[in-house]
Amino acid sequence: MFSLGPFWQVNVRTYIRFYEEPAVYFLNVYTNSRLSVLGARCLLSLPYQQASFDTSTSGRRTSFRMESTVGEPSRRFSADVYPLSGWFSPENHSLENWLTERYHVYMVKGTYIVKATISHMPWRLSEARYNIKQNNVLEVTPEISDPLAHVASPQTTYVYPPSIRGRYV
Prior knowledge:
Elements: E1 9-18, E2 21-31, H1 34-44, E3 48-50, E4 52-58, E5 61-68, E6 75-83, H2 95-100, E7 104-109, E8 112-119, E9 125-135, E10 150-152, E11 158-159, E12 163-167
Protein name: DUF2071 domain-containing protein
Organism: Lentibacillus halophilus
InterPro entries: ADC_dom_sf (IPR023375), DUF2071 (IPR018644)
């Protein structure tokens, strides 16, 4: 088990079930932690990329900008986020709980399906609204008329050694 210090991250992921176990499958992860990139890519074959982050806060608004110049084209994401509520823990069986309380990550490493287990305290969330200024992280960004958005409090997450769960052919 290991833990890294605080770092910023923007991730694109999907939610999966493998052998009836809820998990996350990362499509891309951008972070400012070189150690996270090295460990995730070498040990877990996760699609982590180095990125720079700038943040500023004014009142309740937090503005942040992410840029990754790895690969072509460079990837950028910037937004203003406005918390709308106090901190809360998602209730069991709520959508917020379903989205945040995942304790396994799956990845494909060569011809193997690999699982890494993670642990953390339950997420503390605040309802939020946002204004995306720039986003080319996804090739296609769906238009959502009533988006669900939350801000999460800082979280320490522990990653346990991975295990092989199957073959990918």
